[in-house]
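Exercise 7. Predict the structure of CoA-binding domain-containing protein from Paracoccus chinensis.
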Amino acid sequence: MSQPDIARIAAETRTIAVVGLSPKADRPSHGVARFLQGMGYRVIPVNPGHAGETILGETTYATLSDIPKGESVDMVDIFRRSESVPAVVDEALKALPGLKTVWMQIGVMHEGAADKARAAGLTVVQNRCPKIDFPRVGARGPARG
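Solution. The predicted structure, encoded as tokens:
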């Protein structure tokens, strides 16, 4: 993934569904989501073990399909094991019509699911972290206007 691609993702994204977001402040998913919120992105937590609870001030949903239909999600950030990615991508393709990007965190990769997402017109990032990559490209949060 090139730096211009990362910069484009950072600018065109406004809302990020974080699959596997933990309510525990010491977990990487929590730190990344908190960082993204601090940059101005809206984070929607997705974690079946904490559905209905509030994480980082946002209601947590059990699945991507449970996110209300009026919400526009631009990016799905996956904090799950690689073998869980195909089911997450399948659900995202069905439940999130405005989705632009599937982002798999460091250590998370699945070529089959990535190919399926790309075939559906999505940008796919694997084995990377927006908390690391967005600052590297000088991203300042969602584009305004």
